[in-house]
Amino acid sequence: MTVKKAFIAIQKLSLIRSDDSYPPLNEKQVLLSADQLLPAIEILQKNNIFHLTTITGVYEGQQLYLLYHFWQQEGITLRIAINQPANEVPTLTHLIPGALFYEREIAEMFAVQIKGLDTSQKMFLPDNWEGGAPMRKESPMALNKKSEDQ
Amino acid sequence: MSRVTIPIGPQHPLLKEPLSFSITLEGEKVIDSVLRLGYVHRGIEKLAESRSYIQNITLFERVCGICSHIHTTTYCQAVEGLLGLNVPRRGVYIRMLLCELERIHSHLLWLGVLAKNIGLNTVFMYAWRDREIVLDLMEEISGGRVSHAINTIGGVRKNLTEYQLQKLISGLVVLSSRVEDLLRIVENDRSFKARTRGIGFLSEEDVRRFCVVGPIARASGGRVDLRKDAPYAYYEELSFNVVTMSEGDVWARSMVRIQETSEAIRLCEQIVEKLPSGEIDVTMKRKVPTGEFISRSEAPRGEVIYFVKSDGSQSPARVKVRTPTLTALITLPQQLRGLQMADVSAVVAGVDLCIACADR
Hints:
The complex is a heterodimer of chains A (150) and B (360).
Chain A: H1 2-13, E1 28-33, H2 37-46, E2 51-60, E3 63-71, E4 75-81, E5 88-90, H3 100-110, E6 113-115
Parallel strand pairs in A: 1-4, 5-6
Antiparallel strand pairs in A: 2-3, 3-4
Chain B: E1 3-8, E2 20-26, E3 29-36, H1 44-48, H2 53-61, H3 68-83, H4 89-117, H5 121-142, E4 151-152, E5 155-156, H6 162-188, H7 190-196, H8 204-209, H9 214-219, H10 226-229, H11 250-274, E6 291-299, E7 302-310, E8 318-322, H12 324-330, H13 332-336, H14 344-350, H15 355-359
Antiparallel strand pairs in B: 1-2, 2-3, 4-5, 6-7, 7-8
């Protein structure tokens, strides 16, 4: 029940733009912009939803989304659209200290700026890494899918 | 008093896996510790995007060297969810059987590592001797002691014979009495308690703030177990207890894990008893429809999540893996703060780290 209540409250924050399209997910999800992230987390915490499972970076076409998966007997996902060129989201570590490693991973793999978090030291990649953010679409690391897949 | 910083790792006296942390000491007291991961980062999530759905099973089996089966199970569940496949009951039961055997294996391995780190070599030998029993059982069923290669999208690849089931039953009887002995040691042995009580403390509030899962959360009073909270496979058909303690220290984690081992043996017995007859797999459709799927399951160390996104091509557009060790690692600096240097080894072993899982 708590997830359902929070879901309805967060939906009121959400402004779905018509140009945003993404495939269906098997758990509840809300599309938000980066500046709506913190208000949404506050709503979740008011409804006793504290468990952040992970943060997933995912592309739909050229648009990068960060998915914040929460869990309280059922799942709820906040889908944050990362706007370019701002390319940043606020840190959650003051509200959820457990988000620290997830955010650092996002900063390293997707080069998204985490506002309020020091990400100058590497966590997963080598210190002398020069390949850019490996999970980004335009990264030189991006593997070309085989032509038969298309 | 002047401060000294000691780097421990990546090549480690405590763990078999590479993890680096530098510990700042004041005398013998730990003031601070800084972690560095990434020494076994293999870019598995990136690799998965260039392999087909079936090839990825082999890849995800290698995320972890201990709980390999739960990774393929969770991945297969996600792809089956996207495909809308109904896996035959017998196939799911065989999957669950290996999941539980793996839990026994993982917990016994962990007890051995902890015992060795705190200087109780006898317990280490006992625990690993008993671990051989479960490894042999897994080899009998799947052909592999650690990597089983039994999961496939739509079911499992190997059926169970009557002979295997008989071996399993007799093996579980021996294992059950051995685990009882180990429980007595953990519960009563004076040296074991002297080295594990009151260190590495995490409160229930800490567990919630740091999003900790698995036995560590349960040892601090958090009643979280996805087998009960969101029953996947057919766990709702089986009866078992979620073991919790309130002490929140390394000793409580040991108690939780050993009692969970007994519960896992009970689960295995139930699975053998209730094992349905029939098919073990269904044919996978070649084309995975566009969509996204989150699959969650309870690994020996806690919640594992796989996020799979399909764009309709032959390989997934994105696979995200979150393993329980990543949540446990964040709490290490807090657990170590204020401890004696000699207790660091017990705390590090007590959280049951799997660095290969955390790095991916």
